[in-house]
Amino acid sequence: MPVPASPVPPAPAAPLGVAPLEVAPGALWYREALDRAAQAALLADIRAVIAAAPLFVPTMPRTARPFSVRMSNCGPLGWVSDTSGYRYQPFHPDTRLPWPPIPPALMALWATYAACPVPPEACLVNVYAADARMSLHQDRDEADLTAPVLSVSLGDTALFRIGSDDRRGATRSLKLASGDIFLLSGPSRLAFHGVDRILGGTSTLLPEGGRINLTLRRVTAA
Ligand code: SIN
Ligand code: FE2
């Protein structure tokens, strides 16, 4: 009996051995992680998510002021904000339907980049029009802070600000471009971060302009 040929391992989704830029301990920036074809495929996946779970306008808990960013989610849990507070919940705030599943391409990015043994439970979809921004905040609504937050940027470049876990600490600005992956992990898991502005006309990926940011999160403690 001939010995069966060993299966050819699938190509890794990211060039293994490509070192990220570590902008602070645990704040890892993989520039141009996704090529144009991968960005376009992911965009099609996210358009399908938004078709099933329409964009909603979150509001600030205390003031009921609307966010300038519109949102959706996929995965078993989704992040929402309204006058009852910030939280994760398994259904869309308007349609009350369960969130659609996280697309396989995003699950694969988590497997490749997150260095986390458990799968993500939520993917927040942030849609930035040209004039949208997001003020400095920490991602701390998750019970499991050992898992990273993995962000994927699509469309126009964002002027992204990141500091430390001290709100008054020094910050620095980075330009997150379409196809970039950014991880808040380890000592930077609770780093303050935000988007100061969108740099219009810097990408042709979204015909309507603006930016889409996807963040994969683990929510419950294992
Ligand atoms: C977020 O903090 O939820 C989004 C960050 C980004 O848009 O890059
Ligand atoms: Fe955040």
Folded structure, characterized:
This protein has 222 residues and is mainly beta. The chain has a single domain, classed as Jelly Rolls (Sandwich), CATH 2.60.120.590. 12% of the residues lie in helices and 32% in strands. It has two helices and 13 strands; from the N terminus they run E-E-H-E-E-E-H-E-E-E-E-E-E-E-E. The strands form three sheets. It has a seven-stranded antiparallel β-sheet, with helices on one face. It has a four-stranded antiparallel β-sheet with strand order 7-12-9-10, with no helix packed on it. Strand 1 (21-24) and strand 2 (27-30) form a beta hairpin. It is globular and about 40 Å long. The relative contact order is 0.21. It binds succinic acid and fe (ii) ion. The site of succinic acid has 11 residues, from strand 6, strand 9, strand 12 and strand 13.
